[in-house]
Amino acid sequence: MIPPDARPRLAPKVRLRLDQKTNRHMLLYPEKGMQLNATAADIVQLCTGEYTVEEIVARLAEKYVSQPRATIEREVQTFLGALAERALLKTEP
Amino acid sequence: MSVSPERAGTSGEHRPYTLVAELTYLCPLRCAYCSNPLDYARHASTLDTGTWLEVLRSAEALGVVQLNLTGGEPLLRKDLEALVAEAEHLQLYTNLITSGVPLARERLRELRDLGLDNVQLSIQDVTAAGADRIAGRRTFQRKLHVARWVKELSLPLTLNIVLHRENLDHVEEMVALAEQLDADRLELANTQYLGWALLNRAHLLPSREQLARARAVAAAARERLKGRMEILFVTPDYYVETPKACMDGWGRRFIVVSPDGLVLPCHLAHTLPGLEFESVRERPLAEIWRDSPGLNAFRGEEWMAEPCRSCERRSVDFGGCRCQAYHLTGRITATDPACSLSPDHGLIEAARAEVAGASAGAPPSLTYRSARLGEASPSRP
Question: What is the ipTM of this complex?
Answer without folding.
Answer: 0.92
